[in-house]
Amino acid sequence: MKEHYFFSQPHQPFFVLGFVNAIVTMLIFMLSFKGVLTLTLTPSGFHAYSLIYLMFTPAFLAFIFTTFPRFASTPVIEESLYLKVIGLFAIGSLLFVLGALTSAILYKIGMLILLGAHFWAIKILTGIFNTSKMEDKHDIFWILLAMVFGLISHLLFIVGESFWLPLQSFAIQVGIYLYLFLVAFSVAQRMVPFFSHCMVDKNVYLLKVVTQLLTAHIILETIHPHLSFIADFALTYIVAKELFRWSLPFPNPNPLLWILHLSLYWIPVAFLFGGMSNLTSLINGTSFLFLDIHILMLGFVFTILIGFGTRVTLGHSGNMMQADMWVKVLFNWTQLVVVMRLFTSMAAAWGWNFMVLFDISVTVWLIMFILWAVRFFAVLIKGKKLTN
To answer: Cα Rg for the chain, rounded, in angstroms?
Structure first.
């Protein structure tokens, strides 16, 4: 039925919720960081939690609920199942945001509902993994494992928020590296060479080695802040060597491909920046305003999310799989988001007043998601056919 189109495929409501949360929570964070709003939890805690679990998690599930059954050669997820999950994510998101503005009890209830939704999503994916008859479950194993790490980080964050605040930093590290990055990289190492027609032998050890180094990063950072530069430099070498082996056809005339390639190239750059900034901070105490995390999350995870999200939205709506002027502008704008956040961190490191750059970096983020929503929400909600 036409009136139910919005809920007919899992990526549609999950993308809309994730992208709406990206706009709302970033605006609230900016106002709280500038002292305009007073939150019932720390602004940094609100920022980390909202982006990891209110924005990226629904957006990831939009893609994974669509593709995971295909990877596993199992039937699609039943509508009744994913609608219950998205319903809990929507309720939990609303309560968390309202509670952050008004009541600590309310935002904690929202957190628990979001944790329940997150658990339910993992349970669905685990069921798919267990029922799959495929002999080669390599890729779906690593995707599922990364999603489980996300659930663990979610639980640790809530425990830290309620009982021992220092646990939050560890939870965020797990959420960033073993969840967000590992999910995105596990999907990318399968799909990007395929889309690019790169016939290279799969490196079956890649994800295992990367996961070990990511774990080492977290352990080193826990032992002493900024000691993780050792793992960062190792990750720079391992990932750069693998990307070089793939020989991706970059620059590519197809924007739907070059945005994916560009996101991958940000990985070694991000770990290199992270290693250098962490080593510098360790030596002389310079603050880079979380440069390592933001360049990795924006350069790779955010960029590839927009690339994959646009592909899925076009491909599952009957629209032409091609990049019009809107899409080209959006893809280029993603890189403005990354560069502005890079400049903000460098300004902080150099001792400059970085607040103007902070405002600009948040503004370009908000514009990015607003423009994407203007172009694609009608496609997701009503199945609109686009015209150039």
So the answer is: 20
